[in-house]
Amino acid sequence: TPEIRKEVGETTGEIKEITEEKLADRKEECTESEDPSRCYLSLAKELRDPFICEEIKHPIVRDSAAPRTTCYEKVLEFFISLKDPQLCKKFPEYSPEKSYAQEVRRRYECYRKIANLLKDPSVCDELESSLFRNSCYIKVASDLKNSSACNNLVEIELESLKEEWSELYYFPKRVEYFNSKEVCSQISQEPEPWMIY
């Protein structure tokens, strides 16, 4: 609706207070609008709440997850552009039953990318799982070409992960990789030079 589209420009401001009744009205407006996916995305950005994307109803087709997935991805991009790590908490935190859920990966991506933008590896500290934290440190170290990010690596024991991760059949090598400070010692402090064509 025009009202919702007009408010898209206000998404960089403070979060508005909204009552349950008003929220229900806005959701109903989105459902009845010509482009529900776009409307819900605008509302999700305005309220800084990615779970609004769950309201998008799927058409019964093979790629039915696409509108909802796109909404989550766009909200993730929006959160990253605001460079506020606190917003990453809006995506669900790690738990064994959600170990492979896209929403958990988006939380990881959110922290990792904001850590890169702020050039601050300590943003990775917010990740609950030691495996995700170490992965984040190594990736940020690689992206920033700064091995000091790996000073934060914590030792991960494979045994301790067996309860935390339900499917560990391919993890031993990954755990070995995420434990290795040698990975970071190979990261150059200087950007790679341009090669002559």
What does this entry show, briefly?
The protein has 197 residues and is mostly helical. The chain is built from nine helices and no strands.
Number of strands: 0
Radius of gyration: 20 Å
Main pleated-sheet profile:
none
What is the string of helix and strand elements? HHHHHHHHH
What share of residues are in beta strands?
A: under 5%
Span from first to last CA? 52 Å
Structural overview:
With 197 residues, this protein is mainly alpha-helical. 51% of the residues lie in helices and 0% in strands. The chain is built from nine helices and no strands. Helix 2 packs antiparallel against helix 3, helix 3 packs parallel to helix 4 and helix 5 runs parallel beside helix 6. The radius of gyration is 20 Å and the shape is elongated. The protein starts with a helix and ends in a 12-residue tail after the last helix. The N terminus is likely disordered.
Quick tags:
197 residues, mainly alpha, 9 helices
Write the layout of secondary structure elements.
Elements: H1 2-7, H2 20-32, H3 36-47, H4 66-82, H5 102-118, H6 130-144, H7 158-164, H8 171-179, H9 181-185
Helix pairs in contact: 2-3, 3-4, 4-5, 5-6
